[in-house]
Amino acid sequence: MRFAKPVVSAVTPGHASPNDEITVKGSGFGAENTAPLVTIGGHPCTTTSWVNDTIVLCTVPRGVGTQREISVAVAGQVSDPVQSFDYNAPKIFGVEPNIVPIQGGVEVTVRGSNFGSKDNDQVLILGGARCESVRFVSSEELTCESSPQVYGIVDVQVVVGGQSGTGKEILSSALPVLKDLTVSSGPALGGYITKFRVENVPPSPVPAGIEIKCTIGGNECTELQVSTDGSRIQCVVPSGGGSESHAVVTVAGQSSTDAVFFAYDAPVVDRVEPETRAVA
After folding, report:
1. I need a surface site. Which of 2, 81, 108, 167 has the fewest CB within 10 A?
2. Cα angle, residue 187 at apex, residues 186 and 189 outer, rounded to 5°
């Protein structure tokens, strides 16, 4: 005697992560002693539990992606596959370290969930730049073995199985450092050249989209020229006043915090017109 093959009609929930439990509904799932087996994307569920002829429970096996086929096998008969299951997309919870040098080259660990397995290809993107070498540690941890160049505060993205997850603004480059000024005082009118001696500034040519600003007393310098090694920025001093005008360099929205100041010359009075005299 041959029974009708099983039929899958619904899966709830329609998306989940590995080790979550889902319910498969249909018909022809047999009896408990027939040991029905559920597969997702060709991988057997970690456990399949028979409830009745129309319901079985599945502990989701490891996997990634969307529209994965689900089928139920009972006593040698297999249901037609139903494309009705999506693995949850990867999520990013944090990175370590969360501050990296702008030139890159350091190891960055990304922690989260749903990163798949060592059989999957994981892509890590830091601030729009792809890691060339990604090491799979676990479904909750990946390592970018040599970080790319990063400027400012950026997102981190992981892509696996056609799905992506993003940690918003969780990684930043080291703050620019202003060491000193080659010309640290001068006339209030401005218009002359000084050089900011700096660290953590991209060399010339500066990457597209990266804004660099130099200010003195909150006023922006003009005609910036960054050296080819990123150690100096030449600019024209703006007009201003005061003996302690704070000098600041800003790269991709991040500003130096160093105590470097510019002293504008004090005003000098050499005559008063018209001259006045006391009246007797």
Report:
1. 2
2. 135
SS (H, E, C) 52-111: ECCEEEEECCCCCCCCEEEEEEECCEECCCEEEEEECCCEEEEEECCEECCCCCCCEEEE
Distance linking the first and last C-alpha atoms of the chain: 136
Sort strands 134-138 and 77-78 into parallel, antiparallel or unpaired. unpaired
Q: How many residues are listed for the chain in this entry?
A: 280
Q: 177-186, pLDDT tens digit by residue?
A: 999 999 999 9
For residue 32, the model assigns a pLDDT of 80
Sign of CA dihedral 42, 45, 48, 52: negative
- 3-state SS of 141-167? EEEECCCCCCCCEEEEEEEECCEEEEE
Return the pLDDT at 8. Answer: 95
Distance CA 217, CA 72 (A): 72
Digit-coded pLDDT (tens) for 107-159: 999 999 999 999 999 999 999 999 999 999 999 999 999 899 899 999 999 99
Q: Hey, what are 132's tokens?
A: 């060339």
Reply yes or no: is the peptide bond before residue 274 cis, omega within 30 of 0.
Answer: yes
Q: What is the pTM of this model?
A: 0.83
Cα separations in angstroms, 210 against 79, 168, 179, 254: 56, 19, 21, 11
Q: At 34, is the secondary structure helix, strand, or coil?
A: helix
